[in-house]
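Preliminary data (for renewal application), iron/sulfur cluster complex.
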Amino acid sequence: MKRTATARSLDGLVAAGALAPERAAALGRVADRYAIAVTPYLLDRLEGAEPDSPLARQYLPSSAELEVTPEERADPIGDAAWSPVKGIVHRYPDRVLLKALHACPVYCRFCFRREMVGPGGDALDADELAAALDYIRQRNDIWEVIMTGGDPLMLSPRRLGEIVSALDAMPHVGVIRFHTRVPVADPERISADLLSALKVSDSAVWVAVHCNHPDELTEETTAALAKLADAGIPLVSQSVLLRGVNDDAAVLEALFRRLVRARVKPYYLHHGDLAPGTAHFRTGLDEGRELVKRLRGRVSGLCQPAYVLDIPGGHGKAPVGPDCLSGDADAGYVVEDYRGVRHAYPPVTEKL
Ligand SMILES: *Cc1c(COP(=O)(O)O)cnc(C)c1O
Ligand code: SF4
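Predicted structure:
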């Protein structure tokens, strides 16, 4: 029997066979606090899954979410301070986030916007959307519009098409970028109608797909990505470094190889944000740097994302990957190769 409904409660997860009833009984407070949603497609994969499997850890609620540490905050990356009108976050001069919708196909347990997304978070109404588009239209220095949310590919193709056309018609907007979990969470949604809604005549549309584990790149997901790539849309990925899911060099290697094989360039590996109740997912920065360093020797440059930290307080993202270069121009540089061997630069020349 093909499932048709998204599970939005503990009972729904139990009925789908994704969560054992005795585990569900202990999770009432988690369900009261944070939204639950798992698509039919992912329920098929979660049925009977071990609670600590990479998919279960990402999508099924856990009592660890009730532990909020002092440094965690509702707005971990400080979006609120940079929001001039509803639905817009304008932190960098040349680009804005446009959040037309707060709903996602799934609610990831580690989400950095977990206090903003969900059934309580509403979409922009027609006037609010018009005001957000006006904000972009009136500012010539906005070159890139990043559609995020929520998940922008949850909009109906008709509404999506209207927004894309409005942005495409603004001469200063060069790039419309979508951040989405749809290919991973609900690949059937990448339909012919959706692809035609993403057609532009002037700007470039890019899609950044959110994917954290090689098990998420199933045949269905890979086929959905192929449809986007065949439509001429360049694809990049973003992943979050998650303890117990992908904090392992072999897992990251498999993930990035599969992404590149699916014509997706790994873009960012995010260090876990300080979202409430997500401490069990966070690694140390030193662990992240060590993992990324190990990848350097294992996979090609195409498979290397930038390891980034979104600085709490709204200061933007900073690359925090390992440094291969030390020293300075006067004293001379030392550069480390992929095996960890250090070399002087420029090379020391032997005196005769
Ligand atoms: C992450 C982010 C962007 C995009 O940053 P890139 O480095 O261009 O991917 C833009 N605006 C805001 C507010 C962001 O948080
Ligand atoms: S899809 Fe993205 S925004 Fe939505 S819950 Fe998952 S991490 Fe958060």
